[in-house]
């Protein structure tokens, strides 16, 4: 379509629905933070984003353990730091059919990556068993065994049920809250378990917003525990970092992470800087950065323990206030100091990419455990020129950025010269026709005059509205607000300002009215044929007036009542221009939308009625021809001709519209062009058929022309 610049885009848009502006959302897949996983990906500043398995400036350094057999168990190729699960699985007669029998971890030991010692599970054990047995009184070895069993039992996250997730979360919670006997192996198994839970089916997560409150709180406290026997655990969906920082040398600590093209975290993409005075961009790109400013009046020459926890998504933070309808997920990060209060915390997030949507606004929030929801208290925000979203908060805890997105609408092009000329000529033609009909009304009965005048008036109104109104008066162009206020949804919808909806309703009304009057005209002809000699019964005029102006009003009222809401006007009209909504959220034509049942369907019924009358009329005149006297016959023929003309005009034009809807490719293009040409010049055609062709007009016109020339 766009390749034909002369096509009046807007007129064709009344019918053509193929312009796909809304992306189809895959309902289950979480929105990716990154686009296609090309390898290696290069960012705008020329830094390589390596695939998970490779690292280094040119992505040539292996970041993986090759597949290997350890103690008779086969393990696949695995990224350094991640866990591997054996290809030997529990027999399918046991409780844990198809779950790996053993796990290990790929570590960088003795200068090269290799698999660590292995952990095995009993094939009959279940999460419920472990949940009963895990208590604070276990020794370190037993605890580690239970922790690694839990990890293996959750190694196929896609199989986890809601009760499995709850059990696993409670086991990890108990292990973490009893930090005394935790070995490094236990900590790694616990963190890996949570990481695996974060890839489970979101539908299986409990609906209560406080379900994981204790777990995330324990993890946060645990990360800043000075007795920790581990420093960094990086799993695909969760990073936990615990460190000791000498306060004498630093004003602040900065942690940054990049999830890369895969949404997975790897050790090579985590950076910690312990000697910073303010937040600053890192050499390698990062999705999230957090900077903790230490208090000034801190005892020098002491060590301070710092913990960071980074969640790849917010499944453990179920918000009631913030609704996600675009399947977006947010990273959640916590930064905690062991035993002092932070001066302030600064965060930077890269806005996520949502296809065919652009960022509308964002809010800097923290998880308020007393509310069990996100809160903005104590946080402020800034939209940086570099494109990242910056937050500053006066306390530490779990932070996130809530983002809302609006549709990237392709606003309709301006009216073309063609459609302006076509519409203007039509309006002139219609006005002349009305004047002519009124002047010459005496030569006709009153009913046809009123019907034709009403048709012309409705069409004129439609053309006026179309010329001045269809282009959206205020095209959506909002900017990020300055105040840090809570957002309610990740999908932003401008509330209705009224003008566009009013225009749509009026255009729907007058176009429907045009068809209604046209149908009344046909009915009128039908009555004339049936009662060839007498005129139409009295009262028909009144009924016509009520139907002609009332029926369209009823349809418009129903359409508005069913489809329109002030906070979501797009159920009724489109956003790109002021006309009835035709598409669903996936950009597909939807029979439930008002353009179908509030416009196309009534018009189709009326067109069918008109066609039926025309066919009937054709047969009736042919059959009765010999019986009628010649003058009746001619007047009948004339009527037939004029009603046929009108039927052709309105009917064929809009039948073309239906063809536009149901065809594709070149045929569609031809029909579109024909539709637009017929449509914009309809008023002109009516003028020619009903005015120029009449004998009276020609006589007047020629006498006027003669007097001018002489
Ligand atoms: C985004 O819009 C373009 C054109 O409007 C379309 O081709 C593309 O498929 C859309 N993307 C998605 C993910 O729907
Ligand atoms: C988002 O998409 C734009 C262009 O489509 C790209 O330049 C940018 O790097 C993407 N951002 C992320 C975080 O992937
Ligand atoms: C056990 O699994 C194997 C292969 O996975 C399959 O061939 C076999 O039928 C299964 N046995 C039972 C009892 O389900
Ligand atoms: C997961 O839950 C199901 C019931 O919902 C149970 O049958 C199964 O044993 C559980 N899996 C594990 C590993 O505990
Ligand atoms: C739980 O503990 C009991 C005894 O304390 C032991 O017999 C049982 O094997 C344990 N179960 C698991 C799953 O470890
Ligand atoms: C730690 O383990 C020892 C046995 O190794 C046990 O006696 C002790 O109670 C455990 N400590 C705690 C706090 O559970
Ligand atoms: C933690 O590490 C310290 C030494 O680094 C060791 O003495 C202690 O036993 C370890 N604790 C556990 C539970 O492994
Ligand atoms: C959460 O609620 C939704 C509907 O509100 C329901 O379909 C889903 O099963 C619930 N999930 C759980 C784990 O209860
Ligand atoms: C991310 O890691 C998971 C393993 O946890 C893996 O299954 C998935 O393929 C990874 N994603 C990509 C894009 O590599
Ligand atoms: C910390 O940074 C300052 C300058 O920014 C530098 O002078 C100092 O040596 C650094 N200290 C350490 C321990 O790196
Ligand atoms: C701080 O930690 C370092 C090791 O990271 C240790 O050598 C030093 O003694 C500690 N200082 C204090 C005051 O605890
Ligand atoms: C953070 O700021 C909020 C409001 O700006 C204030 O109510 C709160 O007391 C502050 N909290 C801290 C720890 O300073």
From TrEMBL:
Q: Does the keyword Cell membrane apply?
A: no
> Mind telling me which PROSITE patterns this protein's record contains?
G_PROTEIN_RECEP_F2_4, GAIN_B
Instruction: Tell me which InterPro entries the record gives.
Output: ADGR_G7, GAIN_B, GAIN_dom_sf, GPCR_2-like_7TM, GPCR_2_secretin-like, GPR128_GAIN_subdom_A, GPR128_GAIN_subdom_B, GPR128_N
Say yes or no: keyword Secreted present: no
Name assigned to this protein: Adhesion G-protein coupled receptor G7-like
What SMART domains is this protein classified in? GPS
The source organism is Alosa alosa (allis shad)
Cellular component (GO) terms are: membrane
